[in-house]
């Protein structure tokens, strides 16, 4: 069974950024799933996703987040899978805030 890439974003408004990850998966014929789950509005759902990801066949999670970018860090705290954080452009700081939060 091949592993699936989990593409996760905190809001549907993050799709223009995260769509690129999905398009690359399609181009490379890599199975993937797209999920919207908020670190702030639905933390229990986020934890359930992260804790069940391995059993669901996910091999890596790509998580896009804006602002303080809590989503990738919270996912990483609840799974043994690699979590790749993707900064999403914000209005205030043009995504630099997200980038700095993710690479910290």
Which features does this protein show?
104 residues, alpha/beta, single chain, Rossmann fold
Give a quick summary of the entry.
The protein is α/β, with parallel strands linked by helices and 104 residues long.
Topology:
Elements (H helix, E strand, L loop, with lengths): L3 E6 L5 H13 L4 E5 L6 H10 L5 E8 L4 H8 L5 E5 L8 H8 L1
Parallel strand pairs: 1-2, 1-3, 3-4
Please provide a written account of the structure:
The structure is a single chain. The protein is of the alpha/beta class and 104 residues long. The protein has a single domain (4-103), classed as 3-Layer(aba) Sandwich (Rossmann fold), CATH 3.40.50.1970. It contains four helices and four strands. The protein has helices spanning 15-27, 43-52, 70-77, 96-103, and strands spanning 4-9, 32-36, 58-65, 83-87. Strands 2-1-3-4 form a four-stranded parallel β-sheet, sandwiched between helices. Helix 2 packs across helix 3.
Cα-to-Cα separation, first versus last residue: 34 Å
> In percent terms, what proportion of residues is strand?
15-25%
Number of helices: 4
User: Helical content, roughly?
Assistant: 25-40%
**How many independent structural domains?**
1
Largest sheet properties: 4 strands, parallel
Q: Segments where pLDDT lies below 50 for 5+ residues?
A: none
- Which CATH class is shown? Alpha Beta
Which descriptor suits the 3D outline?
globular
Task: Give the second-level CATH assignment, the architecture.
Answer: 3-Layer(aba) Sandwich
Mean pLDDT: 93
Structural class label: alpha/beta
Q: Which fold name corresponds to the CATH topology? A: Rossmann fold
